């Protein structure tokens, strides 16, 4: 998700103050001697006008020159009505009946000369390769807090786990698989229980009284079809059953849901993140009773990836925090004004090269104000290179909804982080997973435990045994009832990859449990 998805804060450079130095460096090593400084300067002005019209302006040094020229900019051209440049046809979705040519400008919004200046600006001022991670503390193995427990593998099918969750009511582990299109269960001894074959792939689930509301993405691969839906499942003893009809159909690749009574009518509504692809939406489904829902669109753009419902201003009305990872990237707060009305406020906005993956609200300094724990690391789109700004971020809240970055730990391809008091210290430590780690040089990035030593100082640890999977999904729950949070990691052994690994994740388990053995 490059120009259409990502985050960056500390790497933004004010090009007005450093352009001369950057151009001088490029002149020294320039491979395209016909690119003039004047053309680069013009390209910057045009980028500020056109690229910034859709999202926060990215700095050229966020990606290498080859990725800009061959990966990202050809994807952006059609959005400006440019479908071909220098006899090179650009990829687009105009033939997709769910998108159509009408989605794009009818005529080019700028001339070939101006588009070439934008290309020159990004390719001239970007490095040949991105710098390596700058990590102060190495990730060291540690066995003090967690030990790995493996489930009984029911068959030889390669694991493609896209969802994992612990259900405390049934004391069962719930998983879903994107290849087998299955909804599976496991008992407290990690033995398989009867599951269900379903259409599509479950990627999220929330409890609703005696049942579950599940988010089905439909086709997992990027597409623009309205094939996603929300379903209801029930676990009664050892029996898992599905309602015959869906709760809601016709959604654009929904990836996350949240449930709350948003309009105060006593009925639970549903917030839906329709990630989509070229098109998508953030919406809420108003519960009209008798199984009927009415859809209300809050933002008609793709990339909504996670929603958290919380009464932030303490007025008794549930507000909605949402992370967008495409287009206008960032975290937005939708303040509930009552009667189904919401006021949108950008909280954090980011340039689009990070590939945002997840966030949650946590109070790290215990001042009563929620801070933001954020991860970025999606690396499966147009810039499949290791990025030194992938990892775990903490943005601290000043009490007035102003957030400032106070912590960053680099993890290539980071997919999610969850903060809990894992070690009984009274501080929030962090469990983080990566779907695109640097397997060849530091495979321990797949799972990292950041143990809080106080004052936002964290000791990075790996846990022996967590290298058996490629972790896409995670859950935290006190599975044994001993007051200590345990961790579930879901192994999706398939998926886009540009990094070789010596481990065959297809022979690994569908999930593992990191049993907490620390003090209560």
What form results from the Cα inertia axes? globular
- Distance from N terminus to C terminus (CA atoms, Å) equals 41 Å
Kindly state the number of beta strands: 32
Kindly report the average pLDDT value.
89
Largest sheet: 5 strands, mixed
Give the helix level as a range of percent.
Answer: 10-25%
Q: Number of DSSP helices?
A: 4
**What topology, given as strand order, has the largest sheet?**
3-29-28-27-26
How many whole angstroms does the radius of gyration measure?
23 Å
Q: Which secondary-structure class do the elements indicate?
A: mainly beta
Beta-strand percentage?
Answer: 35-45%
Task: Give structural attributes.
32 strands; 10% helix; disordered N terminus
Tell me what you see in this structure.
Helix content is 10%, strand content 38%. The chain has 520 residues and is mainly beta. The strands form eight sheets. The protein has a five-stranded mixed sheet with strand order 3-29-28-27-26, with no helix packed on it. Strands 9, 10, 11, 12 and 13 form a five-stranded antiparallel sheet that branches. It has a four-stranded antiparallel sheet with strand order 4-32-31-30, with no helix packed on it. Strand 14 (254-260) and strand 15 form a beta hairpin. Helix 2 (37-50) crosses helix 4 and helix 3 (65-76) runs antiparallel to helix 4 (112-124). The longest helix is centred in the first third of the chain and has 15 residues, at 15-29. It starts with 14 loop residues before the first helix and ends with a strand. The model is unreliable at 1-33 (pLDDT under 50).
């Amino acid at each position: 998700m490059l120009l259409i998805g990502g985050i960056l804060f500390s790497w933004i450079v004010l090009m007005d103050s450093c352009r001369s130095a950057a151009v001088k460096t490029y002149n020294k090593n320039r491979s395209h001697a016909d690119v003039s400084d004047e053309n680069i300067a013009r390209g910057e002005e045009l980028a500020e006008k056109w690229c910034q019209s859709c999202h926060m302006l990215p700095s050229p040094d966020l990606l290498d020159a080859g990725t800009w020229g061959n990966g990202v900019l050809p994807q952006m051209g059609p959005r400006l009505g440019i479908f071909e440049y220098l006899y090179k046809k650009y990829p687009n979705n105009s033939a997709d009946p769910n998108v159509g040519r009408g989605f794009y400008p009818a005529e080019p919004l700028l001339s070939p000369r101006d588009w070439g200046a934008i290309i020159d600006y990004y390719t001239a001022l970007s490095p040949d390769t991105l710098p390596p991670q700058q990590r102060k503390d190495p990730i060291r193995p540690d066995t003090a807090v967690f030990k790995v427990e493996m489930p009984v593998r029911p068959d030889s099918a390669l694991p493609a786990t896209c969802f994992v969750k612990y259900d405390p009511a049934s004391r069962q582990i719930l998983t879903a698989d994107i290849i087998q299109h299955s909804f599976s269960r496991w008992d407290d001894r990690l033995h398989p229980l009867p599951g269900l074959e379903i259409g599509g792939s479950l990627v999220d689930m929330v409890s609703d009284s005696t049942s579950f509301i599940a988010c089905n993405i439909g086709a997992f691969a990027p597409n623009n079809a309205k094939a996603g839906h929300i379903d209801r499942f029930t676990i009664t003893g050892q029996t898992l059953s599905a309602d015959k009809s869906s709760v809601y159909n016709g959604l654009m690749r929904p990836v996350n849901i949240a449930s709350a009574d948003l309009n105060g009518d006593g009925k639970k509504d549903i917030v839906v993140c329709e990630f989509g692809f070229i098109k998508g939406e953030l919406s809420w489904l108003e519960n009209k009773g008798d199984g009927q829902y009415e859809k209300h669109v809050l933002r008609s753009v793709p990339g909504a990836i996670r929603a958290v419902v919380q009464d932030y201003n303490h007025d008794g009305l549930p507000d909605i925090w949402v992370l967008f990872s495409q287009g206008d990237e960032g975290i937005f707060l939708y303040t509930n004004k009552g009667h189904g009305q919401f006021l949108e406020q950008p909280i954090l906005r980011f340039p689009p090269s990070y590939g945002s993956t997840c966030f949650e609200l946590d109070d790290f300094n215990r001042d009563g104000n929620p801070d933001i724990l954020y991860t970025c690391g999606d690396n499966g789109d147009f810039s499949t290179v290791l990025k030194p700004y992938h990892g775990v971020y903490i943005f601290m809240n000043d009490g007035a909804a102003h957030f400032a970055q106070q912590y960053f730990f680099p993890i290539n391809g980071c997919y999610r982080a969850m903060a809990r008091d894992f070690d009984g210290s009274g501080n929030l430590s962090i469990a983080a997973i990566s779907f695109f780690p640097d397997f060849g040089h530091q495979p321990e990035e797949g799972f990292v435990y950041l143990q809080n030593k106080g004052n936002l100082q964290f000791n990075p640890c790996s846990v022996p045994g967590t290298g058996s999977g490629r972790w896409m999904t995670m859950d935290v729950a006190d599975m044994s009832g001993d007051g200590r949070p345990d961790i579930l990691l879901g192994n999706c052994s398939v998926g886009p990859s540009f990094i070789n690994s010596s481990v065959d994740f297809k022979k690994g388990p569908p999930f593992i449990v990191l049993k907490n053995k620390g003090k209560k």
